[in-house]
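Here is the promised in-class demo. Please do not try to memorize the tokens; focus on the logic of going from shape to residues.
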């Protein structure tokens, strides 16, 4: 890649993310920003997106296109990893 990474580069990686690929994309974003100064705005944006991908990895959907499903929905408790990215499941051991 020529030049410094941009927000658009990060968005191109994160935009189509799904829970299944969240951790692979998180690693790619981390590699993209690793040489940047801690206070660089693109690095800070990348760190925010890394956190989003981490939450997404524990979720079943991004839930950005609609309202979250109510946890009172019939059968909800039987759906593995039923939490959306905005309210992820607790990590094991916590």
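The designed amino acids, position by position:
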């Amino acid at each position: 890649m020529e030049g410094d990474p941009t927000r658009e580069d990060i968005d191109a990686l994160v935009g189509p993310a799904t829970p299944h690929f969240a951790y692979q994309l998180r690693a790619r974003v981390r590699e993209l920003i690793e040489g940047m100064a801690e206070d660089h705005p693109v690095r800070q944006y990348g760190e925010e997106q890394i956190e989003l991908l981490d939450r997404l990895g524990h979720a079943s959907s991004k839930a950005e296109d609609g309202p979250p499903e109510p946890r009172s929905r019939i059968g909800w408790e039987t759906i593995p990893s039923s939490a959306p990215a905005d309210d992820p499941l607790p990590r094991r051991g916590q």
